[in-house]
UniProtKB/TrEMBL annotation:
Gene3D superfamilies from the UniProt entry: Ribosome hibernation promotion factor-like
A cellular-component GO term for this protein: ribosome
TM ranges: none
Taxonomic source organism: Thermomonas hydrothermalis
Protein name as annotated: Sigma 54 modulation protein / S30EA ribosomal protein
Protein keywords: Ribonucleoprotein, Ribosomal protein
InterPro entries for the chain: RHF-like (IPR036567), RHF/RaiA (IPR003489)
Amino acid sequence: MLKITLTHEGSDHAAHQSLHAAVEAWAREHLGPLLAGYPGDLHLHATVKHHSKGAAKCTAHLRLHLPRKDVLVAHGEAIDIQSALAEAEKRLLREVKKHKERLHGQADYRRKARRARLRQLKVAQAAVPEQVQTQTRHGIEPLLPQLTRIVRRELAYLRASGELPSQDPSVQDVVDEAVLSVLAQGQADRPAETLLRELLREAFRVLDAEVEARRRHGEIVSLQSSPEQDAIDQAEAMVQEELYEFYQPDEALQLSDVVADDTLPAIETDATCTDDTSARDYGLGRLVGLPIVWRRVWMLAELERLAMADIAAVLDLELAHAERLLAHARAFFDAHLRQAGF
């Protein structure tokens, strides 16, 4: 049941009653259907004020108290009471819809938005001649391992920084949508460098859309479920993942595999090499603290060895701006390495 109270400052009793009736009618028509599934008593408090000074002569504040002590607030300003109240009501409806989306699991809404994007891309792809699609697929095929590696790394750091949840989207989701976007462009005879730039640009656009959706909707965390593995630990574990991707030990270990051979000469450790590796690992672990664009510029330049012109094209930046961001990222790492004693 929705209880409504109204505070109207600077008006007589008749105007107060009229506004109260108007708010009740609006709440029954618009809020009622949205709040039908909420348990317990709900309380909507409206405050309307007249001001003698300022461009906004009237202001309206709406506070909707929901179960679990959730409070949604909306504000409106206008030259008259009705317009100010209408603006506040419009904003409150938007807040209620967002709240319901969060309660119903905003990951479902992100997936719906992703499916809508994929449907549009498939329509555009269907209009591309089959010969052009086949040629583009052949050009994309050898670039998929590099694209997958970059997407996996970027996803790890976005999750470590709290920008994305741990499961959705997957690496394959991002790669598939990026490939579909490039196919839908319908351009033939593109060299590998151009295809890689387009694939990376589309992959980053997909990730940016997911981050924006996460920021807009927020995330509901269950208090009953077990906590997930720390995302920063996952990201740091990926620092040397390339070294282990191709290491496939035998299923059956022999004693000779695990016992040291005393007849072999001792291996001297290169202290300089060890220090360099430690510094590199420490620096990669600090990537979480970088702004997203800084990190992407640094990773594409230092890890993927792309030219600055290509990086600027991938990230839709001016060349000079991309170079400044790379300099900032390098200075960031140098400062942290010095602070850590490297």
